[in-house]
Amino acid sequence: MPIVQPVGRLTLAFFELVGRIAVFAFTTLSHFFRPPFYPRLLLKQMIEVGYYSLPVVGLTAIFTGMVLALQSYTGFARFSAESAIPNVVVVSITRELGPVLAGLMVAGRVGAAMAAEIGTMRVTEQIDALKTLATNPFKYLIVPRVLAGLLTLPLLVLVADIIGVLGGYLVAVYKLGFNPATYMKNTLDFLQPLDVISGLVKAAAFGFIITLMGCYHGYHSRGGAQGVGSATTNAVVSASILILTFNYIITELFFSQ
Question: Are 185 and 108 members of one domain?
């Protein structure tokens, strides 16, 4: 029994955590369509999540596209298949690298900030003050942030896809000597609507996960400054793990045979 007890304790703790997150997510979703609404807070969070994240996501996307084109050329040149580079770049960016890398960058920037902000409000009893003033903390703090992530990240990923493909184009044309018109024709001919749609669906799911984890860990933080630091770390780590997990699940749903 002493050997089994730690395993059982960890298992019960894991399922308790999953249940608490599920209840938190259901409570958040239940407030999406019930008044009162705070459109000004929603707009502020959309600017925070989307516009202010654009530089880091854009830099990540363009260098990813450039490296992808360069590495693809190194490998495909051995088989005289250089013409497949535009196809590889556009599919890799739109299906996988665009949504995943954008999600991870936003998780590190936005998820941590949300957890720290809401966690500070929790330990300084500002959330309790909202309840005293008859303001629902979920409506005022959680819903605008989660809804902003859900709506904004697909737009951010769409921009990242364009920038990433542009990075591959620049390397292929100006370094590897590809014909610009042929490269663009191959890119557009090979790109399918499903490639872009699957990436945008992933982006919406990732936006929901990032903001939900940031709000959840911040809302349940305890123990002063140390608790806020732990909540910030847990928000980024859990969001990153869930992004990679749901990336596989959504890919399986879209492209499984």
Answer: yes
Per-residue pLDDT 10s for the chain (257 aa) are 677 888 888 888 888 888 999 999 999 898 888 888 888 999 999 999 989 999 999 999 999 999 999 888 888 777 777 778 888 889 999 999 999 999 999 999 999 999 999 998 888 888 888 888 888 888 888 999 999 999 999 999 999 999 999 999 999 888 888 888 888 888 888 888 888 999 999 999 999 999 999 999 999 888 777 888 888 999 999 999 999 999 999 999 988 76
Domain extent, residue 156, equals: 39-255
Name the pTM for this structure: 0.90
If asked whether residues 132 and 5 sit together in one domain, one would say no
N- to C-terminal Cα separation, the chain: 45
193 and 155 in one domain?
Answer: yes
> How long, in residues, is the chain?
257
DSSP 177: -
Q: How many Å apart are CA 233 and CA 230, to the nearest integer?
A: 5
